[in-house]
Amino acid sequence: MTARPRLTVFGTGYLGTAHAACLASPGFEVLGVDVDAARARALQAGTLPFYEPGLEPLLRSGLRDGRLAFTTSYRAAADFGDVHFICVGTPQRPGSGGADLSQFESCFAGLAPLLRRPCLVVGKSTVPPGTAAAYGRRLPEAAPAGPGAELAWNPEFLREGHAVADTLRPDRIVAGVWPGRAEATLRAIYAEPLAAGVPFLVTDPATAELVKVAANAFLATKISFINAMAEVCEVTGADVLALAGALGRDRRIGRAGLGPGLGFGGGCLPKDIRALAARAAELGVGDALEFLHEIDAINRRRRTRVVDLARDAAGGHLEGRRVGVLGVAFKPGSDDIRDSPALEVAARVRALGARVAVFDPAAMDRARRVHPELEYAGSVLGAARDADVLLLLTEWAEFAAADPEVLAKTVARRAIVDARHALDGDVWRTHGWDYRAPGRPGHPVSVPGARTGHMAGVPALGVALRDAEVACLAAAI
Ligand code: UGA
User: Fold this and answer.
1) Measuring CA to CA, which of 52, 318, 341, 362 is 20 to 30 A from 287?
2) Cα angle: 401, vertex 407, 410; to 5 degrees
3) Rounded CA gap, 446 and 464, in Å?
4) Does residue 107 carry a catalytic annotation?
5) Percent of the chain, pLDDT > 90?
6) 333: pLDDT strictly greater than 60
7) Residue 91: CB within 6 Å of ligand 1?
8) Distance between CA 9 and CA 4 in Å, rounded?
């Protein structure tokens, strides 16, 4: 292997493109590879096929300096590279919770027979436990270089919307290696972040691949935990935002990832917890991760809860109502609509008979292709025009900055469901809005099968109490 290895990156989605561009920036020569010729051409022309703040300038500077290029040719990549990063997608298998590894398999099967000289193949895709071991066994058999072709696992933890920062300065770099040259090679590739103090954790490959899915399972659990508490808040009169703030002050818990609201979506957390639970069951330890099904169920209930809030705010039914939707991306800073809670809520409200006008700063084109039945407005004001109720479903900064008085002049009724807790409810109510937010029953909300209770000594404010809860509280007073 040369002193400064030449790198290839297979798969040019958020992960692969960010990885390729960020490795080119400290001076590596990098070749990005994708089976999608249109995508490879767009990237070679300096155009990102998706929205990711800060990535396009990095892409263009790599192309301009001649350190970065894109191809569809596996042969060119095998001839070029000393280290091959595999960053292809591992979506959910249709009709099952398991991961679909077909892209990984076809990348490996296409590349390995072309590897004639010593090289390192590095798995970065998110995969179920056991994947690294299986490919580690196959690589020296499939590659003409034999044992000269090594496998390592180096999972990626970047968040969409923060891909560049998370790639250049991750919280940690995990290198899953077997004995050989892999550790030294990875240390050389990551010399720049390591010099800046990023921790480099060396593990076996089985642990490395598990760190990734375990991290996503933990993050999903944290989000569903606070959302489960939001359900409790709604029947006890507690305030989930205050609760999250107080819990987060405990250094062992921390506030990050404890954001209640509409729950998690996107191309990672939902499918990763399902794939991990499915693999655990295959491995005979399904009981250990049974709770992940509950995490998933809590998360899916959030969407139903927000549809219920929308119905309540619209006066008890959605048929014929005009609903303005702010946000369809699965989170701000991204145009990704994969398993987007916001888009699902918009579509469900539409299916219940409402006329739905949506606006999102980045995800409009993608949403339109999947849900042509929704109306697409050109601005916040356009989505709000004549609305009976507004739904804030993705917490883009420009929505949080919306002026309640200006919007009041546009809507038909001053009613808003703030599913992401992005607004100051007191301010909106001061301006005459019926403001509702999940898990904050201090603002008038109701839950199905609940009744509003107001007893001496129990906080009033339209607190919704289930019968058992009322009896229990009454006994305590
Ligand atoms: C997630 C992980 O955070 C990354 O570490 C990981 O590398 C990535 O998946 C992946 O596997 O590729 P990402 O899907 O980009 O990253 O998004 P997050 O920022 O984690 O948000 C996921 C979802 O959870 C979003 O829908 C977001 O709105 C929601 N969320 C997040 C909450 O509902 N509450 C929170 O407190 C945080």
Assistant:
1) 341
2) 155
3) 6
4) no
5) 90
6) yes
7) no
8) 16
- Tell me the residue ranges of DSSP E strands in 354-428: 355-359, 375-376, 389-392, 415-418
Give the model confidence (pLDDT) of 357-387 as tens digits: 999 999 999 999 999 999 999 999 999 999 9
How far apart CA 206 and CA 222 sit, in angstroms, is 24
Question: Is the minimum distance from the CB of 225 to ligand 1 under 6 angstroms?
Answer: no
Q: Please write the tens of the pLDDT for every residue from 311-325.
A: 999 999 999 999 999
Ligand 1 pocket residue status of 158, Cβ below 6 Å = yes
C-alpha angle with apex 306: 304 to 311, nearest 5 degrees?
95
Query: Atom of ligand 1 at shortest distance to CA of 223?
Result: 34
* pLDDT of 79 higher than 60: yes
CA 237 to chain centre: 30
Nearest protein Cα to ligand 1, atom 31: 257
Q: Which two tokens stand for residue 454?
A: 């107001």
Dihedral sign from CA coordinates of 174, 186, 129, 256: positive
Query: Among 53, 67, 75, 87, which Cα is nearest to 21's?
Result: 67
Using the mean position of ligand 1's atoms as its centre, give its distance from the Cα of residue 160 in Å. 8
Assess contact for 416 and 390: CB atoms under 8 A.
yes
How far are the Cα atoms of 97, 150, 236, 247, 461 from residue 292, in angstroms, in the given order? 12, 34, 26, 22, 35
Catalytic residue among 119, 233, 268, 472: 268
Q: Could you tell me the pTM of the whole model?
A: 0.91
Q: d(Cα 448, Cα 384) in Å, to the nearest integer?
A: 27
At residue 442 the predicted structure's pLDDT band, cuts being 50, 70 and 90, is confident
Strand partners, 71: 33
- Give the bridge partners for 377, in sequence order: none
Q: What is the mean pLDDT of the chain?
A: 92
Tell me the mean pLDDT in the region 13-19: 97
Q: How confident is the model at residue 204 (pLDDT cuts 50, 70, 90)?
A: very high
Helices (H), 283-413: 291-313, 341-351, 364-370, 380-384, 397-400, 404-408
CA 187 to mean position of chain CA atoms: 28
CB 447 within 8 A of CB 234: yes
Q: CB count, 10 Å around CB of 215? A: 17
Residue at 155: amino acid letter: P
Nearest one of 313, 331, 330 to 322, comparing CA atoms: 313
Mean pLDDT confidence for 333-358:
98
Distance, in Å, from the CA atom of 114 to the CA atom of 430, rounded to the nearest integer, reads 68
Kindly state if the Cβ of 219 falls inside 6 Å of ligand 1: yes
Sign of CA dihedral 309, 313, 316, 320: negative
Tokens found for residue 235: 């029947």
Of 82, 41, 37, nearest to 63 by C-alpha is 41
Query: H-helix or E-strand containing 207?
Result: helix 205-236
